[in-house]
Amino acid sequence: MTTPALISLRLGLLLICLALVATSVAIAETPCLPNVLTVPAIRGHVYFESKEERKPLADITIKVIPSSGHGHTLAKTRTAKDGRFEFHNIKPGDYYVSIDHKHKEFAGILIDVQVDPQEAANSDTPEFRIVLRNNYFQSCSGSYAEIGSPAGDQNILLSIYTDNSGMVNPSGRFIYAVIRKDGQMTYADMTYEHLLYKKRALNKVELTKLLAAIDNEPLLQLKGKMSPQKYHLVDYHIVLLFEIARDSARQEFALSDFARYVGDDYPPAAKSLLCLVDELRGSKYRLSEACD
What we know:
By secondary structure, the chain is of the alpha+beta class. It has helices spanning 4-28, 204-214, 217-220, 268-281; strands at 36-39, 43-50, 53-56, 61-66, 75-78, 84-86, 93-99, 110-115, 127-132, 144-148, 156-166, 172-180, 184-191, 194-201, 224-226, 236-244, 251-255.
């Protein structure tokens, strides 16, 4: 016989489960992008992602809405056959970029963007991508936005991405630093909590030092995802993704649950490479705060 107390307990658990599901759906509709993206213009690509494969989406409506909250659409366009979109004559200011919610196969997304041609004049802003998918339980809770270099660039020597996820802080996948074989580097920086990309050229001494670090034998052995030995329960996670061009194939490895320090739980070769990249970046915004 089921008692009233047991019925109440089951009802309470059911309500908690429904609340968690509702929360998951709500999170899926939040912007999944780190801080405010500062760009000289609003342009990029829209993709649909399924099983880690991306298909450009054509005829998707993209809207630009002032962040003042008045709700009116300032400008809108539709993506081309290759998924590309671009807005012209957008004055400097703060905006939201949104996707037409009539498409039910993916979660809606609202992205905070600041258009500032002067501040971004010396910024080599990588491609802005909107990735749509219908899996609410993947990283970034379904649809998300990311900043990345054009796919298939054979001239990239080293790239470091951060894949952030969490319920409080901004999330998303974006370039931390990309260095081409000719020494040209694009890296992320923060300006008044705005994400800005800058560019500089490494000199011969710096490039030689980087090449020596990349060819370090212990670094050549790294692969897969490496996690810290001591795990702390936190509501925010950072995974560092390393990609290095090799003669035979591209080397890839990741440092899981990477905090804002370089601890002893990670391979010394990976720590040294990150410390060197941060030294070359020369930015106050850095992930390595315990370098020698």
